[in-house]
Design a protein that fits this description.
Number of helices: 1
Order of helices and strands: HEE
Number of domains: 2
Helix content: 10-25%
Strand content: 15-25%
Largest sheet: 2 strands, antiparallel
Radius of gyration: 18 Å
Distance between the termini: 52 Å
Number of strands: 2
Structural class: alpha+beta
Amino acid sequence: MVASSTCRHRRPIGPESAFKEVNLTRHKNEVWKKWIALYNEKMLSRGHIPDLYVTGYDTPEGYAIEKDGKMYNAFFAPQQDAAWKEKSNYGA
């Protein structure tokens, strides 16, 4: 798997990019390649973020992106292992 790609419409991300070189462990390099390849494949940064309402900024944070007729979503929490406790911005 190649961790970079080129396209005349975007700047490549990966080993050929203009970014500063960094030294990674073998494991971190494999993780980096995996996620950069996924980014280059999906190019979700070119997608549309729908006009969703935000009722507050609780964790986990949730995001949605529409691209090529598909919806993608992601959730981010400060602690990966922590159990989520539903909170409401309404009522007591």
